[in-house]
């Protein structure tokens, strides 16, 4: 069941934003609006996130993904559309009601750690609970438990400047977990970390998710991170969601050339699974086993197969079994019943395809977007970039314009400062507290608020 639902969300900065939404609905382009001094940061975004799911929003810098995230907890008010959490329309709440929801039900972790330099690790982790008015003894108990979950047992009395970048981000994660919020919003949370530490944090999040089952929206520009973490992934371009699906859906059936250009360098063997590439057992029946006997039934196939693997086995682990004989590898479901087969020809074929728009490879569904999500292929398609270049000139222009647009839009947001979850800390329209000192000056935010 969906806990979070965004329906036809628009966020427009500049003059007469409501008129701009109507123009977009009538077919006006983002460039036409920009020529009139209006920036469309998010355009007609619709999606849902089920309980316990990690939903990743991926796109180039300035594609609108961080702006979209800030509309989910009311740090930015949508120009049009609605955001519902547990059936409650967050866009209809008063400021006081919204602050209560943010302090109790929604936690946020940002790219930069935003730890208070004058507070210990334990005090930083307990800050969100302090904002809620939780008594000192209880908040320290809960913060200590959260630090243990985040792998920081024994560091409670340390100071932020005594920690590495990865450890500081663990404190930010513990601060979010300590409040026991139902919805966790993570905006480029690991992108400032070194590659090895970043992977370690990804492992930590996945391990925590096995037991905590939080509903998570995770923002990233890193495709490999999206593929590793996301149960479902939304790809954004120029403010629009151009495709939503599982990692396998996006790898096997990219919606257009723009998505295909993203996935061309992905190690497909680490993302795709046996269940995604298998063929029907019927295709094996009638063939001959290695000892010359005919395979007539599914039971015959299981007996003749060189190996039996679960549906979620990574393709990288199938090379050895597939090369052990002429009979395909058997794929079984949770009950041990035959679900499909992976012939060696199929394995090599999938790895060599590279993802073509609109393909029908494997058992994955066709490229899809959530109900109500409009995708204008003419606006979203872009030629696949030359393999010898990291970015085409077009892509660089798109990134530059989008980044400039989102920056300009943030500054133009009406009403200026908002109030954070505690109702005291001033927050700029991009969700960062004003006036914080210590550590890196940019990107400061109260991670657990």
Automatic annotation (TrEMBL):
Region (Disordered) residue spans: 353-449
Entry keywords, A to Z: ATP-binding, CBS domain, Nucleotide-binding, Transport
ABC transporter domain mapped to chain residues: 22-263
GO MF entries: ATP binding; ATP hydrolysis activity
Pfam families per the UniProt record, alphabetical: ABC_tran (PF00005)
SUPFAM superfamilies referenced in this protein's UniProt entry, alphabetically: P-loop containing nucleoside triphosphate hydrolases (SSF52540)
Top-level taxon: Bacteria
PROSITE patterns cross-referenced by the UniProt entry: ABC_TRANSPORTER_1, ABC_TRANSPORTER_2
Keyword Transport found: yes
Bias (Basic and acidic residues): 367-399, 412-429
Biased composition (Low complexity): 400-411
Annotated GO CC locations: membrane
Matches recorded under InterPro entries: AAA+_ATPase, ABC_osmolyte_uptake_ATP-bind, ABC_transporter-like_ATP-bd, ABC_transporter-like_CS, Gly-betaine_transp_ATP-bd, P-loop_NTPase
One BP annotation, GO: response to osmotic stress
PANTHER family referenced in this protein's UniProt entry, alphabetically: GLYCINE BETAINE/PROLINE BETAINE TRANSPORT SYSTEM ATP-BINDING PROTEIN PROV, GLYCINE BETAINE_PROLINE BETAINE TRANSPORT SYSTEM ATP-BINDING PROTEIN PROV
Membership in a protein family: Belongs to the ABC transporter superfamily.
Protein name in the entry: Glycine/betaine ABC transporter ATP-binding protein
Organism: Streptomyces chrestomyceticus JCM 4735
């Amino acid at each position: 069941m969906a806990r979070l639902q965004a329906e036809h969300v628009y966020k427009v900065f500049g003059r007469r934003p409501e008129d701009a939404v109507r123009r977009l609905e009538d077919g006006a382009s983002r460039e036409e609006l920009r020529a009139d001094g209006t920036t469309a940061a998010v355009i007609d975004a619709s999606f849902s996130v089920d309980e316990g799911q990690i939903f990743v929003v991926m796109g180039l810098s300035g594609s609108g993904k961080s702006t979209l995230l800030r509309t989910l907890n009311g740090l930015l008010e949508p120009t049009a559309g609605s955001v519902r959490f547990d059936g409650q329309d967050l866009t209809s709440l008063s400021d006081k009601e919204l602050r209560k929801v943010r302090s109790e039900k929604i936690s946020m972790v940002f790219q930069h750690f935003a730890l208070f330099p004058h507070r210990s690790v334990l005090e930083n982790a307990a800050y969100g609970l302090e904002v809620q008015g939780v008594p000192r003894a209880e908040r320290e108990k809960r913060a200590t438990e959260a630090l243990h979950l985040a792998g920081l047992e024994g560091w409670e009395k340390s100071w932020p400047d005594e920690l590495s970048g990865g450890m500081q981000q663990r404190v930010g994660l513990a601060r979010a977990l300590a409040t026991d919020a139902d919805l966790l919003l993570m905006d480029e949370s690991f992108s400032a970390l070194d590659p090895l530490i970043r992977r370690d944090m990804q492992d930590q999040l996945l391990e925590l998710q096995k037991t905590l089952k939080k509903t998570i929206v995770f923002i990233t520009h890193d495709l490999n991170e999206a593929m590793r973490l996301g149960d479902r992934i939304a790809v954004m371009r120029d403010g629009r969601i151009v495709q939503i699906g599982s990692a396998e859906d996006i790898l096997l059936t990219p919606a257009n050339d723009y998505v295909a250009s993203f996935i061309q360098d992905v190690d497909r063997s680490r993302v795709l699974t046996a269940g995604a590439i298998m063929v029907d057992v019927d295709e094996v029946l009638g063939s001959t086993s290695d000892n010359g006997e005919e395979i007539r039934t599914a039971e015959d196939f299981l007996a003749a197969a060189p190996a039996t693997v679960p549906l979620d086995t990574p393709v990288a682990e199938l090379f050895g079994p597939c090369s052990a004989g002429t009979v395909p590898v058997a794929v079984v479901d949770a009950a041990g019943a035959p679900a499909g087969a992976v012939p060696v020809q199929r394995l090599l074929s999938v790895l060599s395809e590279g993802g073509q728009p609109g393909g029908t490879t494997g058992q994955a569904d066709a490229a899809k977007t959530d109900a109500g999500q409009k995708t204008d292929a003419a606006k979203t398609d872009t030629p696949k970039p030359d393999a010898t270049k990291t970015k085409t000139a077009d892509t660089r222009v798109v990134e530059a314009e989008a980044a400039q647009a989102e920056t300009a839009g943030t500054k133009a947001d009406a009403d200026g400062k908002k109030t954070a979850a505690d109702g005291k800390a001033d927050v700029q329209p991009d969700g960062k507290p004003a006036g914080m000192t210590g550590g890196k000056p940019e990107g400061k935010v109260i991670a657990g608020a």
